Each structure stands twice: as structure tokens, then as C-alpha cells.
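Feature request disguised as a bug: please show the residue count (487) next to Pentatricopeptide repeat-containing protein in the output. Example input:
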Amino acid sequence: MITFLSHHKMYQDSESLTRFVIEKKGKHSSGSLFNAFLDTLYGKDCEFVFSSIVNCYLDYAFVSDAVNCLKLAKSSKDLNFARFYDTCGRVVDCLVDMSDTASGFRFYLDVLGCGYKADIRVFNKFMHRFCKEGRIDEANKVFDEMAKWGLRPSLVSFNTLVNGYCKAGRLEDGFRLKSVVEESGFVPDVFTYSVLINGLCRESRLRDAYLLFDEMCGRGLEPNGVIFTTLINGLCRNWKVGKAMEMYGKMVTRGVKADLITFNTLVNGLCKSGRIGEARNLINEMTRVGFKADKITYTSLLDGCCKEGDLRLALEVRDRMVREGIVLDNVAYTALISGLCREGLVIDAENLLREMTKLGLKPDDATYTMVIDGFCKKGDVKMGFQLLKEMRRDGLVPGIITYNVLMNGLCKVGQMKNANKLLKSMIDLGVVPDDITYNILLEGHCKYGDPDRFEKLRGEKGLIYDYASYISLVEGLAKSTEYHEKR
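Example output, currently without the count:
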């Protein structure tokens, strides 16, 4: 009936019926539907009907059925496969976007084997997909396959593979391919240099990145904002913020406009280096040139202020974020909590912790531990243990640092029995004490134990590494004390 409707130029009805049949039959129905198609061929109408069937399968995302239709048509003696090349084109486009890239490329080679014309753009797309998936060797195979089909790789082909190598950490292969680019008569462009410079910066090879930058400029290529930002980011990550600001100066001199990413990279670098005043000046500059500070900008500034001990300015930044409708994230809250704890404002830090949870944010174990440490330093060990319970309730598993903080709190207030109980409890939970744990305990015994045994305990600090040794030492000293008392 589908072919009959097409034969009588009732194309819309034919397509509607095709859609209805495929919707009812569902996936894996291409075999039976194709056989029915062959049984009712009407000369020229077969091209329309076949395309309609394949397109309908694609519309329903039954890609495997569409592919199978092409395979069946290719192997059929009753059909001239060349008539279906346009249909192949749409299938190939869908295959490039399939989750199974390898299957898509294998079928594409099958289609080419039937005489379908090879297209460099399709090869490049498959290469890009493989590279994006981190399957650089598969992308290399696609690259090598081009010549077999009479294609000459374009600069886009080379750049796609160079980019893939660099992202996979295979920088030397990327440079090897750059040499092949030049030997093939191509001139590396800004993109080629950009990905290689980025790869060098990621490996902290800044000197080589600078040399490559100079080579690019020497060839008359104008570095763009991406390259400048890449270099600036590499310099900031390696604590060379002064050099990063110099590179920003070169960027401005060359007339290359910085974007928000560039400014945020510099602000973050300046704040991490404690150069808060320069960071604030840069934020004012970015505002003048039309960029609005975002969450990343403010969070970097807030974190920097807290680390430099300027809590007042940090809170001003927080208030400004709230006024501008910017929601604080985990990083911002953790920075503020850290700053408050450092200043001894542990109640305020706890209030921020509560605020985080109310907003649906999840404080991590480090954030909880900072607040626990703050309470323990104030002598409020009970509150520290309350927060430990909350950590567990929230699904966090306290580690050795958290337990050492609590242990230190107990020992500082002379609760040595509770400290020993905590030691046993953490071992039962699978948390292995370290030398810091035992040194905290020994210091507690030195301070609150028998003064006559002080020097003996002090001499053992740094030498006790396990529970058995610790218990042996403490119990031995206790028995020794009892013996001397009896005498």
C-alpha cells in the first residue's frame, strides 16, 4: 500500500502510512519491512519509498534499523544502490552523532565501499568525536584511512589530531604532527599554536610555551585572546603572577581584547598571591571596559581576602554578592568559614555552616573539621562531638584529621580517659591513627599525668607509631607509678 500510494503521487499519505507502520512495528523491524518493500517495487517510486522508510527510522531514533536498510539495499541485486546516495548522506550525519562512534565509522567505510563519495568533512567529524572521547588511537586510524579513499588531509584534519594528542597528554606526538603539517605544505595556523601552547602550559613548560609564542608571532600570525589567556593561566598556575600581568599588558598593547575568562584568571592569580589591592583594581578595570564581575570573580576575591586575614573586606564582598543576586557556592562559604575560624569567631562560622545546609549545599569534611577545630580551641569539645555526629548523619566519613582535632581538644582540657576512648573508637571504625595522633596523646599525658614521668613520655614523642606501642608505654608507666606509690 505504501508503494501504491507513492506510485499514484500521494506522497504525504505514503509517508504517513510508513510512519504508522514503523511506529507499530518498533525497533528491529527493518528486515521484514525491507522485504515487503522489495515485493512491491514500482520502478522510480522505490527511491522515494526507500528514503521515506530510512528517514522515518531516523526520526524515531531507530538508527540501527536505518543502517540495516542501507546494508540490505547494498546487498540486493534488484536495486541500484547509487540511487540512494542522498539517503546515505542523512544516515551518515546521524552516525557521526551516535554514541557508538566506532560502529558509525565502520558503517561509513561500508558505504564508501559501495561507491559513495568520500567527504573530508565526515572524516574530520569522526576524528573529532574520537578525540573528544579520548580515543586518540582510533582518531589516528581515521586520519590514516583518508588516503585510502583519495583524500588529502586538510589543516582542519591535522589540527583536530594535534588537539587530540595534546588533550591526551601526548604532547610530543602533537609536535611530531606539527612537523608533518609543515612537511605536507601547510602552514600551522593560530589554532595549531594555541593547542600546543596550551599543552605546554598544562605541563608547566612555560619557557617552551614562550618560545612557541615567539615563533608564531615571527611567522606573522596574530595571537588571539585564547592564546594570551592560555599563557596567562599557565603563568598564574605556576605562581608567576607578575609575568601574567606583563602578558596582559602585551595583550592590551596589541589591541587584543580580554574577555571575562581572562580577567577572572588574573583576579584569581592575584588573590592567591595575596595581591588583593591589584585584584580590586583589575575588577574596576574590567567593569570600565564593559564586563560585569560574576560568581567566579567575587569568590576569588572573597577567598583571597579570607586567606590574607581581611575578614571585613571578605564580608563586604559577600554582601555585595547578595545585593547583586549572586548565590554563594560551597567555595565561597568554605572560604568565609575558614576566615571566621581563623579569627576565632567560631559561632559565626557555625551559623554559616547552618546557612549552607539550609540552602541545600553540602559542607565537606574539611569545612566541618575547621568548625570543629574552632570549638575545640575554645574548649567546647562537646560541640565538636556534636558536629562530628552531624557529619556522619550527612553521609560524610570523618578522617584522621578530624579525629586528631577532637583528640587535641580532649587532651588540652585534660580529658585523657575520653581521649583514650576516642582512640579505640576510631580504630574500631577503621581510621588508622598516625604519629600526630600519638604525639597529641603523649603531650596530654605529659601535661596532665604524673610529673615524675614527664621526661620519659616526652622522650617517646615521635617514636610511637601504633596502638600497641602506645598502650604498652602508658600502661607501663601507670604500673610503675603504682609500684613506687606502694613503696
